[in-house]
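Tokens as discussed.
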């Protein structure tokens, strides 16, 4: 008789995961809307002013054993995660504004809340950034490092990480900086040696984000990429990640429209409903929207947003349903809305005998309010990965696909975009590292 639990898949278990004792240092590249909403949010939660809504690590439960066991602890009680009181933030930005000033500028959070948190927020001042306007056309920075070449700049970032490491027990780096222009992988990304040579030659295919990632990898520090730029998903970085036990995990926070897309598309596919077209448009008025107004940065975002549907619908297996699907994505910079993004989706579907139907989705969201808990979970889970023997040296943490528009996988594997497959993958990974039975949802044992 089959069991809902999958036996024989136990691992060495919890005893080997190092405890989350001491301080976790979080170094955020880019102290803009997302970063300041994350930092202010964590402080508000620490002070008991607000709840960490949207965060799996803070509010999520995980079922263990059979449904009849009634055992569903909080995830944070099940795996050893850093406590929010032990999280210490710092970061880099091309502007000198401290986190209080930057949060005030971003206007995501109510003025009252930002004022209440001011004493803490103003203590976090950005380190000078590595920046080059060639890669983000719409910004000009003043708080910027200079160096003799890209390798020298990467070494300066390494020095920042090492200095911060002296004040905390563990470090994670999070990219929450602007979207860089679209860059294709080249020979310079093929090996560590080529990449290091490329930095010395100021190779144009090496963007600042890659220098931060290289520095983190060299220091054995996990690196999470919240933006769609090419940063950690190429052979040189994966090699370094494995070599130095510094986890990486794909790119681009999955928050608004793509989050919805990877919920709706699997439902249509599960019911074998066809899709002729999917038109997605957005208006957005924050600095991210302004950066994405540049065609080269938009192209990076577009590529990241386009990927999901093809993988979910598998047109090669279902040509009658999805072969001719027309997928279009627009992002329009519209300042009056600030961080309050509005997204529309029009989906032209067809059912039994080919009869057409339509679905309209209008998501009035808040970009950074959706992104902050995703960023928090990524940071805490990457730190967990670093402390877990079975995870820290595998390089790519595919189990964190749940949070990303462009999940990263082992070479030759297609990524899973379906949010519910991703959620199962994440929870089963947690069960696996704790030596618990995996859950397959078969459930025949209840009918023995
Ligand atoms: N908010 C969301 O829902 C969401 C979802 C997916 C991805 N993202 C991505 O997250 C990133 C941050 O978004 P945001 O709304 O906070 O943008 P933002 O413009 O408010 O903040 C980005 C910050 O990065 C800084 N910056 C740019 N280049 C830098 C560099 N090389 N080094 C250090 N700092 C640098 C900018 O000065 C700015 O302060 C963007 O790339 C965005 O596309 C956001």
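Sequence:
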């Amino acid at each position: 008789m089959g069991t809902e639990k999958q036996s024989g898949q136990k691992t060495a278990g919890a005893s080997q995961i190092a405890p989350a004792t001491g301080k976790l240092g979080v170094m955020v590249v880019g102290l803009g809307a997302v970063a300041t909403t994350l930092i202010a949010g964590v402080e508000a939660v620490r002070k008991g002013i607000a709840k960490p809504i949207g965060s799996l690590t803070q509010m999520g439960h995980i079922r263990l054993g059979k449904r009849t066991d009634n055992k569903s602890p909080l995830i944070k009680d099940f795996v050893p995660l850093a406590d929010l009181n032990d999280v210490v933030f710092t970061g880099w930005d091309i502007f000198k504004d401290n986190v209080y000033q930057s949060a005030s500028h971003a206007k995501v959070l109510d003025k009252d809340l930002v004022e209440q948190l001011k004493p803490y927020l103003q203590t976090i001042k950005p380190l000078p950034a590595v920046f080059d306007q060639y890669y983000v056309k719409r910004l000009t920075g003043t708080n910027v490092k200079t160096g003799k070449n890209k390798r020298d700049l990467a070494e300066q970032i390494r020095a920042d990480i090492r200095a911060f490491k002296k004040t905390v027990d563990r470090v994670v780096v999070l990219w929450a900086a602007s979207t860089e222009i679209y860059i294709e992988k080249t020979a310079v990304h093929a090996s560590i040696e080529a990449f290091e040579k490329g930095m010395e030659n100021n190779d144009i295919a090496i963007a600042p984000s890659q220098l931060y990632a290289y520095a983190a990898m060299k220091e054995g520090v996990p690196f999470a990429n919240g933006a769609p730029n090419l940063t950690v998903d190429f052979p040189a970085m994966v090699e370094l990640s494995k070599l130095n036990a510094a986890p990486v995990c794909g790119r681009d926070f999955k928050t608004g429209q793509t989050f919805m897309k990877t919920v709706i598309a699997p439902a249509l596919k599960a019911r074998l409903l066809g899709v002729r077209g999917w038109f997605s448009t957005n208006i957005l008025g924050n600095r991210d929207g302004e950066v994405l107004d540049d065609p080269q940065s938009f192209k990076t975002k577009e590529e990241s947003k386009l990927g999901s549907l093809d993988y979910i619908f598998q047109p090669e297996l279902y040509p009658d349903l999805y072969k001719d699907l027309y997928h279009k994505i627009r992002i329009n910079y519209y300042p009056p809305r600030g961080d309050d993004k509005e997204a529309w989706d029009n989906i032209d579907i067809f059912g039994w005998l080919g009869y057409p139907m339509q679905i309209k989705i209008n998501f009035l969201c808040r970009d950074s309010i959706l992104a902050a808990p995703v960023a928090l979970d990524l940071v805490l889970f990457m730190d967990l990965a670093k402390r877990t023997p079975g995870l820290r040296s595998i390089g790519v943490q595919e189990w964190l696909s749940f949070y990303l528009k462009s999940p990263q996988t082992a070479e030759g594997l297609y990524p899973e975009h379906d949010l519910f497959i991703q959620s199962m993958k994440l929870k089963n990974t947690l069960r696996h590292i704790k030596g618990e039975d995996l859950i397959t949802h078969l459930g025949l044992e209840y009918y023995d």
